[in-house]
Write a structure and sequence with these properties.
148 residues, alpha+beta, five-stranded antiparallel β-sheet, 5 strands, 42% helix, elongated
Length: 148
């Protein structure tokens, strides 16, 4: 399970909206000292807050710190769908156009059409599975915050 800490900002029936801080992995990179991206990360440039809707069966309130999680296999399958499928469609359409002996501008155009078709399939699939509870992030636990 891939976990991320966040803060509850809104409540829904059976779900919560969690604000997370997006951060890069530069702190764990071996080239951090000589990298411009690492310097930008240390300065806080590029950090932004993201809102995530997560299913929740715990009793939490707005402002509570929580840990949300997503299964690793869902993340890998989602990444393959979003990144790989449009590229496969682009190459397949371009190779088909080239095999048919079409001129280069048409090969490029059909390749772009394949990329667009792959994007449409990704969009259709994401809309079909958007309401599936098995594919959504969940609140794993509430974090105890000590008051000083």
């Amino acid at each position: 399970m891939i976990e991320e800490r966040g803060r509850v900002v809104a409540l829904e029936s059976g779900a919560v909206w969690v604000e997370t801080l997006r951060k890069s992995t530069c702190s764990s990179c071996s080239a951090n000292a000589g990298c411009g991206q690492g310097l930008m990360d240390k300065l806080g440039v590029g950090r932004s807050r993201g809102l995530v809707r997560a299913l929740c069966d715990l009793q939490v309130q707005v402002g509570d710190a929580v840990v949300i999680g997503v299964r690793e296999d869902l993340l890998v399958r989602g990444a393959l769908l979003v990144y790989l499928l449009p590229l496969v469609c682009l190459f397949a359409a371009a190779l088909l156009a080239q095999a048919l002996g079409l001129a280069e501008p048409l090969v490029i155009l059909l390749g772009l059409a394949g990329l667009f078709a792959g994007w449409l399939v990704v969009r259709w699939r994401s809309r079909q599975t958007a309401a599936d509870p098995a594919l959504q992030p969940v609140v794993l636990r509430a974090m105890l915050v000590s008051a000083c």
